[in-house]
């Protein structure tokens, strides 16, 4: 039964609780209680306070059951790392009434508690607190001051001291109030006090993808709106109505439409930005567990209880019976005598609190577990293993022995613990524990790399007790965007007070100087990485919010404007020029000197106001409403579940994309590896043939059950594993193949860096998971398990394999040397010694077979393995299938050969210069020669669903696809081939590690002469091109069908997107799923984010969010095409609607002697643009020329949109011509057939104008929708119903006559029939593409 966390007081029969000895007596078990092993500890033996094992303690139990406190020397005590130290003797940690009973029974509770750690580290801390005082204001008049502890000796583990000794210092965590903090200077390095408040104010840890703040919203949005020419034009027209001489009709006629347009646009922008803020708030509200380091005395008092940190195992103080108050002087005297021995109390009391991500601060210590997203840039301090330590000793052991007595004191220099520091507070077994101080992180959201990264804490912090972490201070450089670089220093200071005060070295001796350890990239985890290991990771925050690596690599959000907006802006400039020209011409025809009543330029201004309908203000309203409809369609499309439109201003740009820049990891691939094929020289296995591999493995590693222990202890080795009786009767060839298969499976099961971990699932089952830096290796180990050979356990010295069916251990090896994979070497190897049988201890070097196994890329292994005639061919075949190939080889070594190699290798590792090259030379000489070629493996990086057909369809749609990834060159090449991004047989031109300008120029010349090849380039070479050959590189690259860029930083991705935009002036779409893609997404004209497995950062920053890559094809080819074509038709129709009324006004002005008088005033003018034509024109957003199936069948329909023909100068001027033709006929014939100026003419002209627009809408519709029918018929009925209320403008009696009717019909027919006939002839002579495919 595991021991309790609380202290247990032993009460022998002969020692009653209230016995008053001459000395205050306590139990040794109280001083060194036994506890259950904590998280992060891995000890096999428990030690006493002086490090003596409990075996020795047991021997002394009988003669030393109790010890006088005054005869106890505390200077030599050693403290376990799993405990906060000698806890409060006077009360239970659970609180309650027991808090009132302390060591001194009759005093105030505050005076009778024992603190849980150190007091204030200053020299002026009172030695004794008063008996009547509160939290440190002594009431006994004692003026004595406690001498400060020698800093060099403050590293002993001390018992928790009574509060009347330690004094009641104030809580140092409150040091430096917020208002007193200095602002952080991001250009300088920083000092970070671990677990304490910082003296400098750092930025908050909040993520923001919002484009506006409360203060910037109106200025920025209004600036963006009025930067468009036609909005500024409308504003000037509206303002002109404040001048009486220029006023025409009601002021609201001009002001209200502009205000309405601005309200619609600003409302939409506000709605989008509020949505972004809401999503940001979700991310910023994510809860994290933070370790709170409290002052030892304040940590246990008052307030609601906080959750205890399980891994720190703070003990509850045992309840002690009432003691005599006059014992105080005895204890006080003893404490003063032992003060100089280096008593050290714990520096803090640790609790767990929950904080939202936005509330995290620099210096906070986070507790992270598997699957946690790292919310800020952190330094890893400690890794605590979840696996329970193997207990080699019984749980309940005697408490202590006589070595704790005053007579047994270590002299300084002879192992005295008085000079120990917090980093050595754990017992000697901590060295073994520190070996588990490692964790894996996933960085694919940061840099796009699929391999897990191994991270570990500094040995100094790993071996410290958790409550002593507050004695650490970190020196870190200024924030920068280099995700693969970091340099810092970890310092250990004498106390928390020194850390908070920013002190450096103190004292006089060498031991008083702070200990320091270097920090590198291996000790860090940047924001948006994910913890992948089972162990609990304690990490301190050093950079927050905008100063994190991911934030610095991310561009700020910007407002995006669609290409259609710019095109319409250009067209409105032409219309405005047309308006000005007509105004000047009309005044000129009258004569500048002949103007009556008004000066000529005032007449021009009045004409400009009259003709303002040429530049229709309702254009923005209609387009914005159309965008909202398109966004609604996208988000409600069942074919794109989970789609979100975050920027509703650019849906038309989805139909104009010419360049697609895609991330690889998580976008094109699932980042899940699967072993697909294995080739052993004469035969290849894949898919169902793997069952045959399983049969061979079973034959080779099967041991029959036996009752003989010796037989059950036998293990397989490469030499002995194939003498199975199952091979009897098999042909020689089959035996050879079986032998080859078993050899390669054994090699793959041993040659890796995978570690199995076991964890309990929700249903109580124990599940095994694998941890490794590369998902390739996990895929291979999973495959060996599937064929019968399971990796059971692995540590730094041994690997154990077991039969996957029976669970019997079949192979055990001792790891002699391991050579990890590097990007330069492209191979990894291991030297192992096989156990012949299960045995305790390490076998002698000569007692087992020694083998060297190696696997690596075919390019390097080709020269290492023995000569063969099949390797090149098979690796090429697998590469064509898009598989990632690894060549496996082995070599047997004699004991003498290995000893010779080991000696030379060790000698080379001690060299000062050329160490790496020397070590590699020894490996090459002794190991990497004539390896036996065992086989080739093919691992597939699983693609996202329907990636291949999606890429093919997008290519056929005329979109050039670039793949930008932070992953390795080989990985990118395999994915490019397997996804069919690179066509079969297409030449791949690879450019890597380019450092010279002449070589860069040669590459450009070659690419210029071979523009049908695929360019594969790494980040280093790309940087060379972008720095020295920027223009030349992009001019060649845009001609290539495919470009694959590897090892790209987030900044490089964004730079490529901007470069393509600047050079080609084409629309660029970027798609990604990770935090490393945010810059690229924001730099693109259209950013698409995929909701990734590990985070939504890219999705939140994108304009459009989808769940799968293949949804992009429907988003572009269907929704994008429809949005662009609909908006183009809508824009031209609105321009036609405004232009035709302006032409009517011109004809009227000419007829009345060039006077600037309005033809349609007040309601007629407003009603024409709103009630009488708005809904039918807006219903054009529902039109479609082809069905969705046809757009997928003929993606070439998308290609024609990129030329912009739907809204070009040609189509624009056609509509201008139609408007002039219809306007002249309608107004001219109305004046000819009725009267020049009067209500009859206005009635005929206005009625024909409205009916003309309704019928023009009907003529333009390709595919009818019920909403269109309702809007056209409803608007017509609404117009007819409103005629009786238009008596102020029309002659109502004339409206009821036949003359009115025939005039309307005649003028309408003359206006519409030629227009419709011309359209039919044009379609027949030169049918559009959609008509052609419909005919098929």
Automatic annotation (TrEMBL):
<feature type="transmembrane region" description="Helical">
    <location>
        <begin position="1163"/>
        <end position="1182"/>
    </location>
</feature>
<keyword id="KW-0813">Transport</keyword>
<dbReference type="InterPro" id="IPR036412">
    <property type="entry name" value="HAD-like_sf"/>
</dbReference>
<feature type="region of interest" description="Disordered">
    <location>
        <begin position="409"/>
        <end position="444"/>
    </location>
</feature>
<feature type="domain" description="P-type ATPase N-terminal">
    <location>
        <begin position="198"/>
        <end position="251"/>
    </location>
</feature>
<feature type="binding site">
    <location>
        <position position="1077"/>
    </location>
    <ligand>
        <name>ATP</name>
    </ligand>
</feature>
<feature type="binding site">
    <location>
        <position position="664"/>
    </location>
    <ligand>
        <name>ATP</name>
    </ligand>
</feature>
<feature type="binding site">
    <location>
        <position position="965"/>
    </location>
    <ligand>
        <name>ATP</name>
    </ligand>
</feature>
<feature type="region of interest" description="Disordered">
    <location>
        <begin position="169"/>
        <end position="203"/>
    </location>
</feature>
<keyword id="KW-0460">Magnesium</keyword>
<feature type="transmembrane region" description="Helical">
    <location>
        <begin position="1300"/>
        <end position="1322"/>
    </location>
</feature>
<keyword id="KW-0472">Membrane</keyword>
<keyword id="KW-0547">Nucleotide-binding</keyword>
<feature type="binding site">
    <location>
        <position position="855"/>
    </location>
    <ligand>
        <name>ATP</name>
    </ligand>
</feature>
<feature type="binding site">
    <location>
        <position position="821"/>
    </location>
    <ligand>
        <name>ATP</name>
    </ligand>
</feature>
<dbReference type="InterPro" id="IPR018303">
    <property type="entry name" value="ATPase_P-typ_P_site"/>
</dbReference>
<dbReference type="Pfam" id="PF16212">
    <property type="entry name" value="PhoLip_ATPase_C"/>
</dbReference>
<feature type="compositionally biased region" description="Acidic residues">
    <location>
        <begin position="16"/>
        <end position="32"/>
    </location>
</feature>
<dbReference type="GO" id="GO:0005802">
    <property type="term" value="C:trans-Golgi network"/>
</dbReference>
<dbReference type="GO" id="GO:0006897">
    <property type="term" value="P:endocytosis"/>
</dbReference>
<feature type="binding site">
    <location>
        <position position="1053"/>
    </location>
    <ligand>
        <name>ATP</name>
    </ligand>
</feature>
<feature type="compositionally biased region" description="Acidic residues">
    <location>
        <begin position="177"/>
        <end position="186"/>
    </location>
</feature>
<feature type="binding site">
    <location>
        <position position="665"/>
    </location>
    <ligand>
        <name>ATP</name>
    </ligand>
</feature>
<feature type="binding site">
    <location>
        <position position="1047"/>
    </location>
    <ligand>
        <name>ATP</name>
    </ligand>
</feature>
<dbReference type="GO" id="GO:0045332">
    <property type="term" value="P:phospholipid translocation"/>
</dbReference>
<feature type="binding site">
    <location>
        <position position="967"/>
    </location>
    <ligand>
        <name>ATP</name>
    </ligand>
</feature>
<dbReference type="GO" id="GO:0006890">
    <property type="term" value="P:retrograde vesicle-mediated transport, Golgi to endoplasmic reticulum"/>
</dbReference>
<dbReference type="InterPro" id="IPR032631">
    <property type="entry name" value="P-type_ATPase_N"/>
</dbReference>
<feature type="region of interest" description="Disordered">
    <location>
        <begin position="1"/>
        <end position="152"/>
    </location>
</feature>
<comment type="similarity">
    <text>Belongs to the cation transport ATPase (P-type) (TC 3.A.3) family. Type IV subfamily.</text>
</comment>
<feature type="region of interest" description="Disordered">
    <location>
        <begin position="294"/>
        <end position="348"/>
    </location>
</feature>
<dbReference type="GO" id="GO:0140326">
    <property type="term" value="F:ATPase-coupled intramembrane lipid transporter activity"/>
</dbReference>
<feature type="binding site">
    <location>
        <position position="966"/>
    </location>
    <ligand>
        <name>ATP</name>
    </ligand>
</feature>
<dbReference type="GO" id="GO:0016887">
    <property type="term" value="F:ATP hydrolysis activity"/>
</dbReference>
<dbReference type="GO" id="GO:0000287">
    <property type="term" value="F:magnesium ion binding"/>
</dbReference>
<feature type="binding site">
    <location>
        <position position="663"/>
    </location>
    <ligand>
        <name>Mg(2+)</name>
    </ligand>
</feature>
<dbReference type="InterPro" id="IPR032630">
    <property type="entry name" value="P_typ_ATPase_c"/>
</dbReference>
<feature type="binding site">
    <location>
        <position position="663"/>
    </location>
    <ligand>
        <name>ATP</name>
    </ligand>
</feature>
<protein>
    <recommendedName>
        <fullName>Phospholipid-transporting ATPase</fullName>
        <ecNumber>7.6.2.1</ecNumber>
    </recommendedName>
</protein>
<keyword id="KW-0812">Transmembrane</keyword>
<dbReference type="InterPro" id="IPR023214">
    <property type="entry name" value="HAD_sf"/>
</dbReference>
<feature type="transmembrane region" description="Helical">
    <location>
        <begin position="1241"/>
        <end position="1259"/>
    </location>
</feature>
């Amino acid at each position: 039964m595991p021991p309790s966390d609380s202290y247990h007081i032993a009460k022998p029969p002969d020692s009653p609780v209230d016995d008053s000895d001459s000395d205050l007596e306590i139990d040794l078990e109280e001083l060194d209680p036994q506890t259950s092993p904590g998280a992060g500890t891995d000890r096999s033996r428990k030690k006493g306070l002086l490090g003596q094992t409990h075996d020795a303690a047991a021997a002394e139990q009988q003669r030393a059951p109790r010890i006088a406190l005054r005869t106890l020397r505390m200077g030599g005590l050693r403290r376990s790392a799993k405990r906060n130290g000698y806890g409060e003797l006077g009360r239970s940690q659970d609180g309650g009434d027991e808090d009132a009973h302390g060591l001194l029974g009759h005093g105030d509770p505050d005076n009778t508690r024992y603190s849980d750690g150190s007091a204030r580290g200053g020299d002026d801390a009172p030695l004794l607190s008063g008996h009547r005082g509160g939290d440190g204001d002594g009431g006994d008049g004692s003026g004595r001051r406690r001498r400060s502890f020698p800093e060099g000796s403050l590293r002993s583990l001390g018992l928790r001291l009574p509060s009347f000794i330690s004094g009641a210092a104030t809580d140092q965590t409150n040091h430096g109030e917020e208002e007193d903090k200095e602002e952080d200077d991001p250009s300088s390095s920083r000092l970070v006090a671990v677990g304490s408040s910082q003296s400098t104010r750092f930025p908050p840890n909040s993520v923001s993808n919002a484009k506006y703040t409360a203060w910037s919203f109106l200025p920025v949005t209004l600036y963006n709106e009025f930067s468009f020419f036609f909005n500024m034009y409308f504003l000037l027209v509206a303002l002109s109505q404040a001048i009486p001489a220029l006023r025409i009709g009601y002021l609201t006629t001009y002001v209200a439409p502009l205000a309405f347009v601005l309200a619609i646009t600003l409302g939409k922008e506000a709605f989008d930005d509020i949505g972004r803020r809401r999503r940001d708030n979700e991310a910023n509200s994510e809860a994290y567990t933070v370790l709170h380091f409290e002052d030892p005395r304040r940590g246990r008092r008052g307030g609601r209880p906080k959750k205890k940190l399980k891994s720190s195992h703070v003990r509850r103080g045992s309840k002690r019976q009432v003691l005599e108050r006059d014992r105080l002087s005895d204890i006080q005297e003893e404490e003063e005598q032992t003060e100089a021995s280096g008593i050290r109390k714990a520096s803090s009391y640790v609790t767990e609190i929950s904080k939202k991500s936005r509330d995290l601060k620099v210096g906070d210590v986070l507790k992270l577990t598997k699957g946690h997203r790292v919310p800020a840039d952190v330094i890893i301090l400690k890794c605590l293993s979840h696996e329970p330590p193997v207990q080699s000793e019984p749980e309940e052991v005697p408490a202590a022995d006589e070595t704790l007595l005053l007579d047994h004191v270590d002299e300084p220099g002879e192992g005295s613990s008085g000079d120990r520091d917090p980093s050595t507070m754990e017992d000697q077994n901590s060295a073994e524990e520190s070996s588990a101080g490692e964790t894996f992180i996933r960085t694919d959201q940061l840099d796009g790399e699929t391999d897990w990264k191994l991270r570990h804490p500094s040995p100094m912090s790993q071996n410290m007790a958790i409550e002593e972490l507050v004695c650490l201070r970190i020196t870190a450089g200024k924030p920068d965007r280099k995700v693969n670089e970091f340099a810092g220093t970890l310092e250990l200071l004498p106390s928390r007070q020194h850390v908070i005060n920013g002190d450096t070295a103190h004292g006089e001796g060498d031991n008083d100087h702070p200990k320091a350890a270097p920090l590198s990239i291996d000790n860090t985890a940047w924001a948006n990485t994910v913890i992948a290991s089972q162990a609990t990771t304690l990490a301190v925050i050093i950079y927050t919010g905008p100063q994190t690596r991911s934030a610095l690599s991310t561009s700020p959000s910007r407002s995006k404007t669609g290409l259609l907006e710019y095109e319409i802006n250009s067209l409105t400039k032409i219309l405005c020029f047309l308006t000005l020209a007509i105004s000047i011409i009309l005044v000129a025809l009258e004569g500048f000197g002949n103007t009556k009543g008004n000066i000529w330029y005032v007449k021009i201004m009045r004409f400009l106001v009259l003709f303002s309908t040429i530049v229709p203000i309702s254009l923005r309203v209609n387009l914005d409403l159309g965008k909202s409809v398109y966004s609604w369609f996208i988000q409600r499309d069942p074919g794109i579940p989970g789609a979100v439109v975050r920027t509703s201003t650019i849906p038309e740009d989805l139909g104009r994309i010419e360049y697609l820049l895609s991330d690889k990891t998580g976008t094109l691939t699932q980042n899940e590896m699967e072993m697909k094929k294995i080739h052993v020289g004469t035969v290849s296995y894949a898919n169902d043939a793997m069952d045959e591999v399983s049969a061979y493995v079973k034959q080779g590693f099967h041991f029959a059950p036996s009752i003989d222990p010796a037989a059950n202890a036998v293990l397989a080795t490469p030499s002995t594993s194939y003498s199975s009786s199952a091979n009897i009767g098999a042909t020689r060839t089959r035996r050879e193949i079986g032998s080859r298969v078993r050899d390669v499976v054994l090699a793959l099961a041993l040659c890796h860096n995978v570690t199995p971990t076991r964890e309990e699932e929700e249903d109580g089952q124990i599940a095994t998971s694998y941890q490794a830096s590369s998902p390739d290796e996990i895929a291979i180990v999973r495959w060996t398990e599937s064929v019968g050979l399971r990796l059971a356990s692995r540590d730094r010295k041994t690997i154990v394999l077991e039969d996957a069916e029976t669970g019997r251990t079949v192979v055990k090896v001792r790891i002699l040397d391991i050579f990890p994979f590097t990007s330069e070497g492209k191979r990894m190897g291991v030297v192992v010694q096989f156990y012949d049988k299960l045995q305790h201890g390490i076998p002698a070097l000569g007692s087992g077979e020694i083998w060297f196994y190696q696997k690596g890329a075919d390019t390097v292994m080709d020269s290492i393995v023995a000569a063969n005639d099949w390797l090149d061919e098979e690796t090429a075949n697998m590469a064509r299938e898009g598989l990632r190939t690894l060549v496996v080889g082995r070599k047997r070594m004699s004991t003498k050969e290995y000893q010779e190699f080991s000696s030379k290798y060790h000698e080379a590792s001690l060299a000062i210069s050329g160490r790496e090259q020397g070590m590699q030379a020894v490996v090459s000489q002794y190991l990497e020669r004539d390896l036996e070629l065992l086989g080739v493996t093919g691992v597939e990086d699983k693609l996202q669903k329907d990636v291949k057909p999606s890429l093919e369809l997008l290519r056929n749609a005329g979109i050039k696809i670039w793949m930008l990834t932070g992953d390795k060159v080989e990985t990118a090449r395999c994915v490019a081939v397997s996804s069919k991004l690179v066509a079969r047989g297409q030449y791949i031109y690879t450019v890597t590690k380019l450092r010279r300008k002449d070589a860069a120029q040669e590459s450009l010349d070659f690419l210029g002469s071979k523009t049908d090849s695929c360019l594969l380039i790494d980040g280093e070479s790309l940087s060379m091109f972008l720095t020295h050959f920027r223009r030349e590189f992009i001019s060649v690259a845009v001609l290539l069908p495919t470009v694959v860029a590897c090892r790209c930083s987030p900044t490089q991705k964004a730079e490529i997107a901007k470069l393509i935009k600047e050079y080609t002036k084409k629309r660029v779409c970027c798609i990604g799923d990770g935090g490393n893609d945010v810059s690229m997404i924001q730099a693109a004209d259209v950013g698409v984010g995929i909701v990734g497995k590990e985070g939504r950062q890219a999705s939140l920053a994108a304009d459009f969010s989808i769940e799968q890559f293949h949804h992009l094809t429907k988003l572009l080819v269907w929704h994008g095409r429809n949005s662009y074509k609909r908006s183009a038709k809508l824009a031209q129709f609105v321009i036609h609607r405004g232009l035709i009324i302006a032409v009517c006004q011109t004809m009227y002005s000419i007829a009345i002697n060039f006077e600037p008088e309005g033809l349609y005033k007040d309601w007629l003018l407003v009603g024409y643009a709103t009630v009488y034509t708005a809904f039918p024109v807006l219903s054009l957003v529902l039109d479609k020329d082809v069905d969705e199936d046809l757009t997928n069948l003929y993606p070439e329909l998308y290609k024609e949109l990129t030329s912009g023909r739907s809204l070009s100068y040609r189509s624009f001027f056609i509509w201008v011509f139609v408007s002039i033709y219809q306007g002249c006929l309608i107004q001219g014939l109305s004046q000819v057939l009725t009267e020049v100026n009067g209500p009859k003419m206005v009635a005929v002209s206005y009625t024909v104008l409205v009916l003309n627009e309704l019928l023009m809408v009907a003529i333009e519709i390709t595919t009818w929708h019920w909403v269109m029918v309702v809007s056209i018929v409803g608007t017509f009925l609404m117009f007819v119903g409103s005629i009786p209320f238009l008596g102020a403008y029309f002659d109502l009696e004339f409206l009821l006559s036949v003359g009115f009717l025939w005039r309307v019909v005649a003028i309408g027919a003359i206006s519409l029939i030629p227009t419709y006939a011309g359209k039919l002839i044009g379609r027949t002579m030169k049918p559009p593409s959609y008509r052609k495919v419909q005919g098929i």
